[in-house]
Specification:
The chain has 182 residues and is an alpha/beta fold. It has 3 helices and 6 strands. It has helices at residues 17-25, 72-77, 87-93; strands at 52-57, 82-85, 100-105, 108-116, 133-137, 174-181. The longest helix has 9 residues, at 17-25.
Length: 182
């Protein structure tokens, strides 16, 4: 069906279809969560299973880059790495708002504070993510030689190295993950 796309009248053409086919054939596809393990206590999930989506993005207090992470005002607004979780996911995993957690992907792990729901005590506490999904800011994850302990927040190092065959960009924005209480 994909190969026919663009051939029929009134359909858009996909550019670089050969690159899409190559990506598919080489298995260069995004991580997909093992959803049947969602809602199972974290210590019962097999270590090779990653039941949740872990999405990364920018937080508004850190405009565009990680350099604003060094600003004292910005650090007051968002003082540490956090992971937003849906309240029902957190409850099923025995994780409470403010708990220290470890997010684990096939490529590594990072430590963060669990931010559960919109009434979270963990700053900035404004979002509520859907079930089965966790969100963390990538732009807190500056590699900092002045303060090496911050390097444990390097979010992009735990995400996929799969590249988009059209743009050539690495897919740093999402990954399959599991989360455990520390």
């Amino acid at each position: 069906k994909l190969m026919e796309f663009g051939v029929k009248k009134d359909h858009y053409t996909i550019d670089h279809i050969d690159l899409l086919v190559e990506a598919r054939d080489k298995g260069l596809t995004p991580d997909l969560p093992d959803e049947k393990y969602q809602g199972i206590p974290w210590d019962e999930v097999p270590k090779d299973k990653y039941p949740y989506w872990f999405g990364l993005g920018v937080v508004y207090e850190h405009f565009h880059t990680a350099k604003s992470n060094r600003s004292p005002t910005t650090r007051r607004l968002v003082p540490e790495m956090y992971v937003e979780m849906h309240p029902e996911d957190a409850k099923a995993l025995g994780i409470e708002d403010g708990d220290k957690v470890r997010v684990i992907t096939r490529r590594g792990s990072l430590e963060a504070r669990a931010q559960v729901g919109t009434n979270s005590l963990v700053k900035p506490a404004r979002n509520n993510v859907p079930r089965g999904y966790m969100f963390g800011p990538w732009n807190l994850s500056v590699a900092d030689s002045a303060e090496p302990e911050k390097n444990k927040w390097l979010a992009n190092r735990v995400t996929s190295r799969i590249w988009d065959p059209v743009s050539g960009q690495a897919d740093f924005k999402k990954s399959a993950a599991r989360i455990e209480k520390i």
